[in-house]
Amino acid sequence: MDLKTLEETPPWDWPEGINKFFLDILRNNQLEETDRLLAAELAGDFTVINDELVDILLSILQNANESKKLRANAVISLGPVLEYADTDGFEDPDDVPISESTFSRIQESFRKLYMDTEVPNEVRRRILETSVRAPQDWHQDAVRAAYSSDDEDWKLTAAFSMRWIRGFNKQILEALGSDKEKIHYQAVCAAGNWEVDATWSHVSGLVSSKKTDKHLLLAAIDAVASIRPQEAGVVLIDLTDSNDEDIVEAAYEAMAMAEVLSDEPFDEEEGDR
Fold first, then answer.
1. 232 and 113 in one domain?
2. Which domain holds residue 263?
3. How large is the angle between the packed helices 152-161 and 139-148, nearest 10 degrees?
4. Is residue 14 part of a domain?
5. pTM of whole model > 0.85?
6. Residue range 85-123, pLDDT digits in tens
7. Inter-CA distances, 42 with 59, 70, 105, 130, 243, Å
8. Does residue 53 sit in the same domain as residue 126?
9. Is 248 within a domain?
10. Distance of alpha carbon 241 from alpha carbon 18, whole angstroms
11. CB-based contacts of 2: which residues, under 8 Å, 6+ apart?
12. How far apart are CA 244 and CA 238, in angstroms?
């Protein structure tokens, strides 16, 4: 089975022992970079990730002779297992695909490399965006510095990171006014995640507007259910008549979530609580 076939195959259908296949590709710096980029991306899947694959991904990240893109892919690939391990902990080690010592090694490697300004900015940005999925003390200052940057890429990284790091309600509200679509989108997601009430007018306005881009609209639909669950139904109900199935599904899911959060049943016929 080659990489392209694996990419098109659901991970649960990958053959047993495919971990070694990924390891061999990632270790061989004589191969085409496109193959190693794809291998790095696929290696982070829960069906295959383990301590050995983490080791090779970290070694690629730490190697200044590897391309920025491959190093960045190695970082991103470690995000899901990092978040899972941080959320579930290690009370039952069999439930986590990596060891606790490996988890700690990922976090320490990320912190050390992020602080090294000799590391390319593209890699450092990916480190911050990935590492915040398992928050640590250094992240507050890192996100604050990134948001204060004049570089729009760093601002985008900060806006993304605010979805995981508390204490940035003021910056989230400010970022909603950005004319950069990607920053605006991340600010909407962060507003919903932290239930930032001051953003209600803006986010609910996106839901009500006929001009909101679908990608942004779906994010706003999720956000209103969290920000003011008791008022979300009134804003969302009209979207259940949309001709777009994705929007209809998102609206119903958001109303269901709002019911749970507000603990008040939503009357679909009345469109009110």
1. no
2. 195-273
3. 140
4. yes
5. yes
6. 999 999 888 889 999 999 999 999 999 999 999 999 999
7. 17, 13, 21, 16, 35
8. yes
9. yes
10. 46
11. none
12. 12
